[in-house]
Amino acid sequence: xxxxxxxxxxxxxxxxxxxxxxxxxxxxxxxxxxxxxxxxxxxxxxxxxxxxxxxxxxxxxxxxxxxxxxxxxxxxxxxxxxxxxxxxxxxxxxxxxxxxxxxxxxxxxxxxxxxxxxxxxxxxxxxxxxxxxxxxxxxxxxxxxxxxxxxxxxxxxxxxxxxxxxxxxxxxxxxxxxxxxxxxxxxxxxxxxxxxxxxxxxxxxxxxxxxxxxxxxxxxxxxxxxxxxxxxxxxxxxxxxxxxxxxxxxxxxxxxxxxxxxxxxxxxxxxxxxxxxxxxxxxxxxxxxxxxxxxxxxxxxxxxxxxxxxxxxxxxxxxxxxxxxxxxxxxxxxxxxxxxxxxxxxxxxxxxxxxxxxxxxxxxxxxxxxxxxxxxxxxxxxxxxxxxxxxxxxxxxxxxxxxxxxxxxxxxxxxxxxxxxxxxxxxxxxxxxxxxxxxxxxxxxxxxxxxxxxxxxxxxxxxxxxxxxxxxxxxxxxxxxxxxxxxxxxxxxxxxxxxxxxxxxxxxxxxxxxxxxxxxxxxxxxxxxxxxxxxxxxxxxxxxxxxxxxxxxxxxxxxxxxxxxxxxxxxxxxxxxxxxxxxxxxxxxxxxxxxxxxxxxxxxxxxxxxxxxxxxxxxxxx
Length: 622
Description:
This protein is an alpha+beta fold. The chain has four domains: 10-153, Sandwich (Jelly Rolls), CATH 2.60.120; 162-395, Spore Coat Polysaccharide Biosynthesis Protein SpsA, Chain A; 397-480 and 570-622, no CATH class; 483-568, no CATH class. It is built from 16 helices and 30 strands. It is globular. The chain starts with 9 loop residues before the first strand and ends with a helix.
């Protein structure tokens, strides 16, 4: 079957076919009389008379308002490969209107696959009436076929774009190989200038596994995600070829169209912006986990934003993309940052903003995004239709992450002068007490150690060994043996379901007793119940700590996990951590101002090429 000869055309995006039936409704909707054929070498849609193919989907809609705002493109048209007689209709929807609007329809008779039909977008796509548009293709003949479609502009490019794709990986061999292969086998991408830099922090990959000309494997020390991404950035920048860069996690499922769409966006861009790709839930593939995020707030019980120093609000969170009648994904929000699972930006941004902070993991993408938005004034745009599937965070929850989250958030606030000592202590103390009250002493230990290392100042990063530090933190996170992770023996047992975790009712007086007895830690042993307290945790919910009042054990169930966490009460551990926390808080009150200034003054150096080359020990690798 012939394909469109589009190598000399300026393709803005393609009508994508789904690769599996599992995600089909994110790409195409086949109404009665229409079927999607996966069995052929090239997927196709087979239609009978009056059958309708609708592209009213997340990946195959055209989001007019975004392209009108951020590009210089003015004229667009579709090229469609059809066989038979058809009516092609263009519909528009808005995020604040319930009804769709028919914009234009045209009939095409005796179509042949060798002669694509042209369907132009009316000029209104750049007007105040713009929103989201999509095609519906109705078969008027007894039988019909649709095999391919692209959106084209005849305008010459404003600039040539070359893309350095940096993938940081740590012992995710299968994922990263699949991702690289997906990029390399995309025929349309082959006409673009790009190279994939695979930074191997785990030393588990071999060069002969990445022997392609457009791929470079870079062995690296285990310096975390920020170190891996920066190592790849430095390599790409030194080649002096790439106008833009894309940072991408190793453990994603990728539709290469998301990468392709970056090229026309930057080739026709009317300003410099960063692109934040949405994260779709790898286990619930129609659900958006995040499309950009806000920093320093959370949503309260009334749904209104509330200041929270370490808080973050994922945008478009839990939006079901199958429900296209909910057009909230058309509306543009203004993220503070985009996560590094898919984050693209220009070379000019790096030259002005510097490299990421050496955070190892956690908050590196937040700080880098805030820098781009606040210091440079460049927008971060979560373009709909650019996304990857990624394992949700509720499915993995290593305890040691709490150390980096505490330390790195404090550093980020110091850089921005955005938090005072009392606010920081108040927030952290609340977090510490919550962990102690549910007997999660290892997480409490991570919080305390994170604050301690922040107070040591920037020399800990400048002169320390990140590999040794991380190994020590991981070991420290297992200090208290009163905690264990166990597989769920009987998943169907009601005791291990969210619905079984009921809210405990306590009177005000009992709440006070719970608080002043450190949730039972100060109660005599004979008053403690042998019953387990069951708590439910998810990506946006922490269960109520008073459930553990006067209990000896807490069982924590986490959304998406096939294991449970069991915590045993330890009075001595709780008191020891609290005493240490008081000591740290007193020390912090004395050193807060000077330490904050030290981190702020060290920022320029910590994001410089000179520092990073020494930090990564690049001279030793030459």
